[in-house]
Amino acid sequence: MSTPPDLHLLSSLVVRKALDGVVLPAFRPSGLSVRTEYLPTTLLLEKLDAGAAPDVLIGTRKALQDLEASGVLAGGRAVPLVRSAIGLGVAPGAEPPSITTESDLVDALLGARSVAFSRAGQSGIFFQELLVRLGIAEQVLARATALESGFTGTALMDGRADLALQQVSELLFVDGIETVVPLPEECQQYTDFSIALGPGAQGQAAAQRLVDHLTGGPARDAYMATGLQNISA
Prior knowledge:
By secondary structure, the chain is an alpha/beta fold. Helices cover about 35% and strands about 20% of the residues.
């Protein structure tokens, strides 16, 4: 009997903690193996443009809606998965800032030695726009730690920054980060993420099984446990 091929899951970083820790290990008894690749949605789209054909995609709702409209998705449509808020991670042992208001956030950002952010991530794109709106872009970006991709919390652990901004679930992914503080509501941006059959899933029942697993109740419980919120269509 031939071994079934790996399923290729191309996903945004936002669900990695839940997927790696709980959700995908629970899928292994199915006999199907999953090859995962995690990227910010902007880089995920570049990979698709370059010819990548994953079986399953997880990305921002807007990006997957655009792929749906262009006919790229094998199943024809994307399914809403989770909603994520942006937060600030604090270096281990440091006193967490009180940022209940916009003024509090400005004080925290100006008072930080360096703030780490992801240049290609949705949170990092929003952060740069927010700094302009708050009128502190020049001061904060002059000493910020900009990562091209990956988890900004790593810059807390190696001392490059004392605050890190990213999706809450992405900050929680990094072992050692003790405190994550959501941005105040007037400065917050919630991002919805969806899941879909990718261009490599044509005629593959196995890919649909993976989607069903990733959208099932136990998976959603794991998402909620890692700082994400549930959404529906």
